[in-house]
Write a structure and sequence with these properties.
This protein is an alpha/beta fold. The protein contains 7 helices and 8 strands, in the order ααααβββαβββαβαβ. A 4-stranded parallel β-sheet has the order 3-4-7-8. A two-stranded antiparallel sheet has the order 1-2. A two-stranded antiparallel ribbon has the order 5-6. Strand 3, helix 5 and strand 4 form a beta-alpha-beta unit.
């Protein structure tokens, strides 16, 4: 073996040792920083994927986020809520006042994962009596300079029957009351809307109340959507 080959091998071993030392030091630093809060480490690690999600269009990013929550890939906040955060409204006790509004989980497919993030309540919908596709795409747009998003989905959802089955399943799992480290619990709201082609908004709302009210801690009637013809004047 030539001296040049030995020299290259020696350099490679040196670089490998430096890499391992640097990696060990970095890992030790991370463990030290998060040793008393591993839950926060999970959230910070998950947040690091944000820039990659933003490589997708806004609606695709939304769908990926729903998928990760549906299958429990999102982190879970196992830290108990302070009793001082509890809020009682109209006879409903919220473990904390921070919730997820309707429009994110439109079809009640990811409630357990979303409550596990630490929300005090999750509001699903808007749900209409019959399935409908919503407005034509593209219908969701980022505003990078404002750090915001505009959506014009138009009540796209799979309808009341599909949502009813999922909400019934969630209730049977007992996801209500105080959370435990293994079972996230919180309140579930249901946002009700009318179908785009419906000529009787009141009847659509009544169907929603009668079919989904039994599964909801509270109901919201959506009569002010600017993206759907009719509700504003209902």
């Amino acid at each position: 073996m030539s001296w040049s080959q030995l020299s290259v091998r020696s350099q490679l071993r040196t670089y490998a040792k430096r890499f391992l030392i640097a990696g060990a030091a970095t890992s030790a630093g991370i463990v030290a920083a998060y040793r008393n809060d591993l839950t926060q480490l999970q959230f910070d690690t998950f947040s690091a994927f944000g820039p990659f999600l933003r490589l997708l269009d806004a609606e695709s990013s939304h769908n990926v986020a729903i998928w990760t929550a549906k299958y429990g890939i999102v982190p879970r906040d196992r830290r108990p809520d302070s009793q001082s955060l509890g809020v009682s409204v109209w006879g409903r006790d919220f473990p904390n006042p921070i919730g997820l509004a309707a429009g994110f989980d439109k079809d009640a497919v990811a409630i357990k994962g979303l409550l596990g993030l630490g929300f005090g309540f999750v509001e699903v919908g808007t749900i209409t009596p019959l399935p409908q596709p919503g407005n034509p795409k593209p219908r969701s747009f980022r505003l990078p300079e404002l750090g915001g998003v505009i959506n014009r989905y138009g009540f796209n959802n799979e309808g009341i029957d599909a949502a009813s089955q999922r909400l019934d399943s969630i209730r049977q799992q007992g996801i209500v009351g105080p959370s435990t480290p293994d079972v996230p619990r919180g309140l579930i709201g249901v946002n009700l809307g009318k179908n785009k082609t419906s000529e009787d908004a009141g009847a659509d709302y009544s169907i929603g109340v009668s079919k989904l009210g039994q599964f909801a801690d509270y109901l919201v009637i959506n009569i002010s959507s600017p993206n759907t013809p009719g509700p504003k004047g209902a």
